[in-house]
Amino acid sequence: MTNDRAMQLVSAAVDGELDADEQAELEQLLESSAEAREFKQDLEQLDSLLGGLPELDPPEPLHDRIMAQAPSQAAQGKSSILSWLRLPPLGSGMRYALAGTGMRYALAATSGAIIAAIFLGSQSLIPATTDISDLVGTMAPNNAAVDANTLDSFAFHEGGLDSLIRLVRRDNNYLLDIQVEAAKPLDITVDMTGAGVHTDAIAQIDSKFELIAISNQTLQLRALGQQRLTILLRRVDDEVFPEDASISLEFSSDGKLLQRGELRPTW
Amino acid sequence: MDKQQEIELVTNCQHGDKKALDTLVRLLEKSVYNAAYRMLGNPDEAADVTQTTFLKVFENIGGFNPKFRLFSWTYRIALNESIDQLKRRERTKPLEHMPISDTDSPQETVALSQLSDEVQSTLMELKEEHRSVIVLRYFSDCSYEDIGRILQLPEKTVKSRLFSARQQLKNKLNQHGVYSS
To answer: ipTM of the predicted structure?
Structure first.
């Protein structure tokens, strides 16, 4: 090859990036230089090798996962950040702990298992993801409030502590929607072990929760005031939903267990 | 999609039209995933990066000026995310050769040819800055101008960087017997 200029010309020619003057210069060069012709052939071969490689198809659920992040129309006007928090891949034990400013509730409670802690302060997170606007209901705990998409629900109601937990189907997704209205801190534990689903993403969150700790199949949170959290669930790969699948719930306050309950969905 | 259609799409996305967001994702998802995969050599990480890329697109589409190219902007996010992912990987373990066949995903393994594996392994040996231009040129079909816009480099630099990257790739492919000149 005569020089770098010649090689760059050939390179640009293979990329179809020459202007008319450069094209003329290259033609002259190719006529006079066997090395330039060989180099061009060489690059064309590389071009064809790389260009011929198969394009990969993204994994099938990726589109749904991406669209689960899409802001709802109602949320669109708001400033946007942290609209959706994706959870890390499976197998990492307790995966996220989110805590508000009043983080008195010990992270140590889940200590060794927690691999990440995100302090959100008083910042509000934007409701997002799959359209959950029609999930907004009253806090009136009422097990009868089950629509066609609601697989099961459980209402807890005791002395100023109310919670309604619903398991809802949305297309191919499942949403665990937790609403709380609590005059004092209410601790809720959700255990999905053996239910054939795992946590996948936080679809909607109110950061005033004092603590949220999420693992593949368990969820612990402490709520005060009117709060809401919606978790996107996924099926455990290739697992047939167990017939007796249930999601167990525990409600406690001031360290005292107040009630146990469960969701028994017909998947 | 022509420029006018793209402007309409972006405007609709900015107004929170979910169908428009879906169209945007469908338009770019595969190419973003492929670019991320070629940068990272790992299908799971590529999926994560693709997802994060669109999360950022959703978060920032409101401030996006439709006179700029949507794909350039999206690719820029994707490449930055890929590079961040590589840095995270470096912090957790030494960067090492990661053949595709080592992946846990049989679906991907089946989908890729041996040649693609070899090329990907060789790509992973290039420096990030060289890999970026190769990925954009060959796997994302970008022009020099596009590459410049995405990587925020003058076209002249794109040209010389692509030239060096291609030479290195060619030599390494030669060494691995994947390609003979």
So the answer is: 0.81
